[in-house]
Amino acid sequence: MNPSYHIKSFCSIKNSQVSLNGNVVFESNTDSFSEFIKAAYKDQNTKYPKFFKMDNLSKLAFIAADILLKNENIDSEQDHNIAIVFSNKSSSLNTDRKHQESIQNKESYYPSPAVFVYTLPNICIGEISIKYKLYSENSFFIFDNFNAEHLLNYSNSLLSTNKANQVLCGWVEFDSENNYEAFLYLVAEDGKIKHSKQDIITLYNT
């Protein structure tokens, strides 16, 4: 008989507001994502100097993951068997646009390496994995819309085959300064919320 899995905690970021398990932990009046995410970094006492060199998608995913994992008392100094399964619609399009602009910039002989390195969406997974020493499987999927069923089935498969003890799942979408959204949740055998398609959708829409 397959074990049942549960959602331990979840974090959402949208409209200049950060929520953890349904409770607002930080909000700002600014419409600028860049200003908002830097303020959230400072407010939540995040410690990762490389954060300021990341692209916007990575900053969004990193802050959501950091807040959630700290809440779960995941020690960044120890190795953890936590897989990561992310998804979005735009891939790394926002950074791709910036990279293309740097190529077409007649004042610059070469495109920016600092921008080019983030022209893959799964780079944000790497930043989180470095900070929290996560060496389990990871994947980044592209869908037209939030796909709760895929996250459910893929993460349950990782857990049931013992490829991970926990899975950090979710949706991290960044298209522009005022069009972004993150919804991450941690699933394991223990937790208060059943890991079902309907429960995932309910939390996502909260």
Structure description:
With about 210 residues, the protein is α+β, with helices and mostly antiparallel strands. It has a single domain (about 5-205), classed as Thiolase/Chalcone synthase (Peroxisomal Thiolase, Chain A, domain 1, 3-Layer(aba) Sandwich). Helix content is about 35%, strand content about 25%. The chain contains seven helices and eight strands. Strands 1, 2, 3, 4, 5, 6, 7 and 8 form an eight-stranded mixed sheet that branches. A hairpin with a 2-residue loop joins strand 1 and strand 2 (about 15-20). Helix 1 (about 35-45) packs parallel to helix 2 and helix 2 packs parallel to helix 5. The longest helix has 16 residues, at about 55-70.
Helix share of residues?
A: 25-40%
Spans where pLDDT lies below 50 across 5 or more residues:
none
- The rough form would be described as globular
Q: What average pLDDT do the residues reach? A: 88
Order of helices and strands: EEEHHEHHHEHEEEH
SSE inventory with pairings:
Blueprint: E1 6-14, E2 17-20, E3 23-27, H1 33-43, H2 56-71, E4 82-88, H3 93-104, H4 113-116, H5 123-132, E5 138-142, H6 148-160, E6 166-176, E7 179-188, E8 193-194, H7 197-204
Parallel strand pairs: 4-5, 4-6
Antiparallel strand pairs: 1-2, 1-7, 1-8, 2-3, 6-7
Give descriptors for this structure.
single chain, 206 residues, alpha+beta, Peroxisomal Thiolase, Chain A, domain 1, 8 strands, 3-oxoacyl-ACP synthase
